[in-house]
Amino acid sequence: METGVGSLGLFVATIGFSVGLDADVFRAGSAVLLAGLGLVLLSGRLQARLAMAASGVGDAGNRLLDRLAPGGLWGQAVIGLVLGAIWSPCVGPTLGAASVLAAQGQDLGAVASVMAAFGLGAGLPLALVASLSREALKRWRGRMLGAGQAGKSVLGVGAMAVAGLILTGWDKALEAALVRASPEWLTDLTTRF
Q1: Contact of 46 with 40, CB cutoff 8 Å
Q2: 102 pLDDT exceeds 80?
Q3: Domain boundaries of the chain, sorted by first residue
Protein backbone atom coordinates (compact mmCIF):
# COMPACT_ATOMS: atom_id res chain seq x y z
CA MET A 1 0.00 0.00 0.00
CA GLU A 2 2.78 2.42 0.87
CA THR A 3 4.38 1.74 -2.50
CA GLY A 4 1.13 2.68 -4.23
CA VAL A 5 0.86 5.85 -2.14
CA GLY A 6 4.50 6.67 -2.87
CA SER A 7 3.96 6.06 -6.58
CA LEU A 8 0.93 8.34 -6.59
CA GLY A 9 2.89 11.01 -4.73
CA LEU A 10 5.76 10.72 -7.20
CA PHE A 11 3.31 10.97 -10.11
CA VAL A 12 1.69 14.10 -8.69
CA ALA A 13 5.07 15.67 -7.87
CA THR A 14 6.54 15.09 -11.32
CA ILE A 15 3.97 14.66 -14.06
CA GLY A 16 0.84 15.78 -12.23
CA PHE A 17 1.89 19.38 -11.73
CA SER A 18 3.02 19.74 -15.34
CA VAL A 19 -0.42 18.69 -16.62
CA GLY A 20 -2.27 20.88 -14.14
CA LEU A 21 -3.30 18.39 -11.45
CA ASP A 22 -3.90 20.12 -8.12
CA ALA A 23 -2.04 18.65 -5.14
CA ASP A 24 -4.67 20.05 -2.77
CA VAL A 25 -7.31 17.86 -4.43
CA PHE A 26 -5.16 14.77 -3.82
CA ARG A 27 -4.48 15.95 -0.27
CA ALA A 28 -8.20 16.36 0.46
CA GLY A 29 -9.01 13.03 -1.19
CA SER A 30 -6.39 11.29 0.93
CA ALA A 31 -7.82 12.91 4.06
CA VAL A 32 -11.30 11.66 3.17
CA LEU A 33 -9.93 8.13 2.66
CA LEU A 34 -8.14 8.38 6.01
CA ALA A 35 -11.37 9.47 7.70
CA GLY A 36 -13.13 6.51 6.08
CA LEU A 37 -10.48 4.16 7.45
CA GLY A 38 -10.94 5.69 10.89
CA LEU A 39 -14.68 5.19 10.66
CA VAL A 40 -14.21 1.53 9.70
CA LEU A 41 -11.86 1.01 12.65
CA LEU A 42 -14.47 2.44 15.00
CA SER A 43 -17.44 0.44 13.66
CA GLY A 44 -17.73 -3.30 14.13
CA ARG A 45 -20.50 -3.41 11.53
CA LEU A 46 -18.35 -1.67 8.90
CA GLN A 47 -15.44 -3.98 9.75
CA ALA A 48 -17.68 -7.00 9.16
CA ARG A 49 -18.84 -5.60 5.81
CA LEU A 50 -15.26 -4.90 4.74
CA ALA A 51 -14.25 -8.41 5.80
CA MET A 52 -17.08 -9.86 3.69
CA ALA A 53 -16.07 -7.74 0.71
CA ALA A 54 -12.44 -8.86 1.01
CA SER A 55 -13.19 -12.49 1.85
CA GLY A 56 -12.47 -13.64 -1.71
CA VAL A 57 -8.89 -12.43 -1.45
CA GLY A 58 -8.52 -14.08 1.96
CA ASP A 59 -9.97 -17.35 0.66
CA ALA A 60 -7.54 -17.34 -2.26
CA GLY A 61 -4.67 -16.78 0.17
CA ASN A 62 -5.82 -19.63 2.39
CA ARG A 63 -6.05 -21.98 -0.62
CA LEU A 64 -2.50 -21.02 -1.61
CA LEU A 65 -1.22 -21.66 1.92
CA ASP A 66 -2.97 -25.04 2.01
CA ARG A 67 -1.07 -26.06 -1.14
CA LEU A 68 2.30 -25.01 0.32
CA ALA A 69 2.33 -27.69 3.06
CA PRO A 70 3.63 -25.28 5.71
CA GLY A 71 4.74 -28.06 8.04
CA GLY A 72 7.94 -28.86 6.17
CA LEU A 73 11.16 -26.91 5.85
CA TRP A 74 10.49 -25.94 2.23
CA GLY A 75 6.92 -24.95 3.04
CA GLN A 76 8.17 -22.62 5.76
CA ALA A 77 10.74 -21.16 3.35
CA VAL A 78 8.03 -20.47 0.77
CA ILE A 79 5.78 -18.90 3.41
CA GLY A 80 8.72 -16.70 4.44
CA LEU A 81 9.20 -15.64 0.82
CA VAL A 82 5.49 -14.84 0.46
CA LEU A 83 5.53 -12.89 3.72
CA GLY A 84 8.58 -10.97 2.51
CA ALA A 85 6.80 -10.09 -0.73
CA ILE A 86 3.72 -8.93 1.18
CA TRP A 87 5.78 -7.03 3.72
CA SER A 88 8.06 -5.30 1.22
CA PRO A 89 5.74 -2.34 0.45
CA CYS A 90 5.69 -1.52 4.15
CA VAL A 91 9.44 -1.75 4.72
CA GLY A 92 10.49 -0.55 1.29
CA PRO A 93 10.77 3.16 2.12
CA THR A 94 13.00 2.54 5.15
CA LEU A 95 15.20 -0.06 3.53
CA GLY A 96 15.26 1.81 0.23
CA ALA A 97 16.46 5.04 1.82
CA ALA A 98 19.13 3.22 3.83
CA SER A 99 20.25 1.27 0.75
CA VAL A 100 20.57 4.45 -1.34
CA LEU A 101 22.66 6.11 1.37
CA ALA A 102 24.83 3.00 1.67
CA ALA A 103 25.30 2.78 -2.11
CA GLN A 104 26.41 6.42 -2.19
CA GLY A 105 28.86 5.76 0.62
CA GLN A 106 27.34 8.59 2.66
CA ASP A 107 27.18 8.41 6.43
CA LEU A 108 27.58 4.64 6.68
CA GLY A 109 27.36 4.83 10.48
CA ALA A 110 23.88 6.31 10.23
CA VAL A 111 22.90 3.72 7.62
CA ALA A 112 24.12 0.93 9.90
CA SER A 113 22.19 2.43 12.81
CA VAL A 114 18.97 2.66 10.78
CA MET A 115 19.35 -0.92 9.57
CA ALA A 116 20.16 -2.21 13.06
CA ALA A 117 17.21 -0.39 14.61
CA PHE A 118 14.94 -1.68 11.85
CA GLY A 119 16.18 -5.26 12.33
CA LEU A 120 15.65 -5.12 16.09
CA GLY A 121 12.22 -3.56 15.70
CA ALA A 122 11.14 -6.18 13.17
CA GLY A 123 12.75 -9.17 14.88
CA LEU A 124 12.03 -8.64 18.56
CA PRO A 125 8.25 -9.06 18.38
CA LEU A 126 8.70 -12.21 16.30
CA ALA A 127 11.26 -13.59 18.75
CA LEU A 128 8.98 -12.76 21.69
CA VAL A 129 5.99 -14.55 20.17
CA ALA A 130 8.18 -17.51 19.18
CA SER A 131 9.53 -17.82 22.72
CA LEU A 132 6.10 -17.91 24.34
CA SER A 133 4.54 -21.27 24.80
CA ARG A 134 1.23 -22.18 23.22
CA GLU A 135 -0.32 -22.40 26.68
CA ALA A 136 0.81 -18.87 27.57
CA LEU A 137 -0.63 -17.54 24.33
CA LYS A 138 -3.93 -19.30 25.06
CA ARG A 139 -4.05 -17.76 28.56
CA TRP A 140 -3.34 -14.27 27.19
CA ARG A 141 -5.67 -14.56 24.21
CA GLY A 142 -8.52 -12.65 25.83
CA ARG A 143 -6.27 -9.81 26.97
CA MET A 144 -4.61 -9.59 23.56
CA LEU A 145 -8.00 -9.47 21.83
CA GLY A 146 -9.12 -6.73 24.21
CA ALA A 147 -5.93 -4.77 23.61
CA GLY A 148 -6.42 -5.21 19.86
CA GLN A 149 -9.96 -3.83 20.07
CA ALA A 150 -8.76 -0.89 22.15
CA GLY A 151 -5.94 -0.33 19.65
CA LYS A 152 -8.44 -0.24 16.77
CA SER A 153 -10.45 2.40 18.60
CA VAL A 154 -7.37 4.52 19.32
CA LEU A 155 -6.21 4.22 15.70
CA GLY A 156 -9.70 5.02 14.41
CA VAL A 157 -9.96 8.17 16.50
CA GLY A 158 -6.42 9.14 15.56
CA ALA A 159 -7.05 8.63 11.85
CA MET A 160 -10.20 10.73 11.97
CA ALA A 161 -8.42 13.46 13.95
CA VAL A 162 -5.55 13.59 11.45
CA ALA A 163 -8.03 13.67 8.57
CA GLY A 164 -9.82 16.57 10.25
CA LEU A 165 -6.55 18.43 10.72
CA ILE A 166 -5.66 17.92 7.05
CA LEU A 167 -9.08 18.97 5.76
CA THR A 168 -9.05 22.16 7.84
CA GLY A 169 -5.39 22.97 7.12
CA TRP A 170 -4.57 22.95 10.81
CA ASP A 171 -2.03 20.18 10.24
CA LYS A 172 0.36 22.67 8.64
CA ALA A 173 -0.02 25.11 11.53
CA LEU A 174 0.52 22.28 14.03
CA GLU A 175 3.60 21.10 12.14
CA ALA A 176 5.06 24.62 12.10
CA ALA A 177 4.42 25.02 15.85
CA LEU A 178 6.04 21.65 16.61
CA VAL A 179 9.09 22.50 14.49
CA ARG A 180 9.45 25.83 16.32
CA ALA A 181 9.13 24.10 19.70
CA SER A 182 11.51 21.23 18.86
CA PRO A 183 15.07 21.35 20.11
CA GLU A 184 17.57 22.03 17.34
CA TRP A 185 19.24 18.62 17.70
CA LEU A 186 15.91 16.88 17.07
CA THR A 187 15.15 18.98 13.99
CA ASP A 188 18.65 18.26 12.66
CA LEU A 189 18.22 14.54 13.31
CA THR A 190 14.83 14.29 11.60
CA THR A 191 15.83 16.31 8.53
CA ARG A 192 19.30 14.86 8.05
CA PHE A 193 18.20 11.94 5.89
Answers
A1: yes
A2: no
A3: 21-53+135-193, 58-131
pLDDT band at residue 2, thresholds of 50, 70 and 90? Answer: very low
Chain centroid to CA 47: 19
